[in-house]
Amino acid sequence: MSSQLHAMRRRRGKRSAAAHASAEHHRDQRVAVIGLGRFGISLAEELMRRGWEVLGVDSDERLVQQYRDALTHVVLADATDEVVLRQLGIDEFPRAVVAIGTRIEASILTTSNLLELGVPILWAKAISRQHGKILERLGAHHVILPEHEMGERVAHLVTGRMLNFIEFDDDYALVKTVAPQSTTGMPLNESEVRRRHGVTVVGVKRPGEQFTHATAETVVQPGDVIVVTGRTSAVESFADLT
Asked: Which residue positions does the secretion signal occupy (predicted)?
């Protein structure tokens, strides 16, 4: 562990002065990603592309060696040990993600440790709804079910009714779809989409043009692509009209 910490300090000293524009920016842009499987490394690399400072932690030496140059820091460590996490300074990070895959016990222990350390914002990956409920009961601030959520999203797209589908918490969704005939040729306030279908049109895109914000006076034309929001069941029913 001491050699890992020494390596972290050495690599920290190599960072350019530009990365330290201000102490506040440095604190805000740090995240620890625990677990460097497919989900964890994909998330970590995207955060790096967005300019974040990422500490990757995994107990698999092969993964640590593979990604040691891809992230700001990569450490070989057992995240189920609270003392180890404290030695790594993860209690000073404003955000952490538990991206551990099928090792449910390790996921739960790591989540518990990070909460005990007082990490302000904690995201945790779950591989099932039951696993997710356990993480929520522990106190994880955000629980992610990537396989389940992606499966639902792709199922909606495969049906051909929607061009894109994003579901949020509490049964609320945003959908991109071709405008149904019943909504075209008149301003939105006349088609009464919200009253009739329980959804709100927030954006309209004509072929060859950019998306524009929808207002009550917006006239939707045949072939327009629209973005609507509302309860999941409502947007699904609305998309069925296309």
From this structure: none
Per-residue pLDDT of the chain (242 residues; tens, 9 = 90+): 544 544 444 444 434 333 343 344 345 689 999 999 999 999 999 999 989 999 999 999 999 999 999 999 999 999 999 999 999 999 999 999 999 978 999 999 999 999 999 999 999 999 988 999 999 999 999 998 888 777 777 777 777 678 888 888 678 999 999 999 989 999 999 999 999 999 999 999 998 899 999 999 999 999 999 999 999 889 989 988 87
CB 149 within 8 A of CB 161: no
Give SS3 for 23. Answer: helix
Describe the strand order of the beta sheet including 212-213 as a list of residue ranges: 164-168, 172-178, 225-231, 199-205, 212-213
Q: Answer yes or no: are the C-beta atoms of 120 and 140 closer than 8 Å.
A: no
161-240 CATH fold: Alpha-Beta Plaits (3.30.70)
Please give the sequence-ordered ranges of beta strands (E in DSSP) within the chain, or none if there are none. 30-34, 53-58, 73-76, 95-98, 121-125, 142-144, 164-168, 172-178, 199-205, 212-213, 225-231
Residue 187: both structure tokens together: 């301003």
Residue with tokens 């790096």: 48
For the chain, the domains span 8-144, 161-240
> 8-144, which class in CATH?
alpha beta
Tokens of 167: 């579901």
Distance CA 228, CA 177 (A): 8
Work out whether strand 164-168 and strand 172-178 pair parallel, antiparallel, or are unpaired.
antiparallel
